[in-house]
Amino acid sequence: MCLRLLGRAPTNLGDGVIRISWLRETFDQLPPSASPDTTEQFARAYALSLLGGVLFPDRSGGSIHLQYLLLVEDWRRAGRFAWGAAVLSHMYREMGRSTLHMTQSSSLGGDLGG
């Protein structure tokens, strides 16, 4: 999938995630004589780094799951997604996960009873 959509793949592709640092290093500068296919691959890499680093960050802070690459495969289809709702949903899910790790009890606000 990486080869097809990005034109290259990282050597240490583990657990279906790509390091954002690899994306930024590999797709740092678009060559001046880039073909339309190469330009599209660089655009996908940039979009993928935004998705993983800005819109859908997780606790790892430095990687993004390959599932997001499929979202930017077709630009026309990607333009029809409800990105705002997806980002909001992701933010709430991550906040909930963080809260669960910070509390000992199963209730969101902690154990208020006696």
From TrEMBL:
<dbReference type="InterPro" id="IPR044824">
    <property type="entry name" value="MAIN-like"/>
</dbReference>
<protein>
    <recommendedName>
        <fullName>Aminotransferase-like plant mobile domain-containing protein</fullName>
    </recommendedName>
</protein>
<dbReference type="InterPro" id="IPR019557">
    <property type="entry name" value="AminoTfrase-like_pln_mobile"/>
</dbReference>
<dbReference type="GO" id="GO:0010073">
    <property type="term" value="P:meristem maintenance"/>
</dbReference>
<feature type="domain" description="Aminotransferase-like plant mobile">
    <location>
        <begin position="2"/>
        <end position="101"/>
    </location>
</feature>
<dbReference type="Pfam" id="PF10536">
    <property type="entry name" value="PMD"/>
</dbReference>
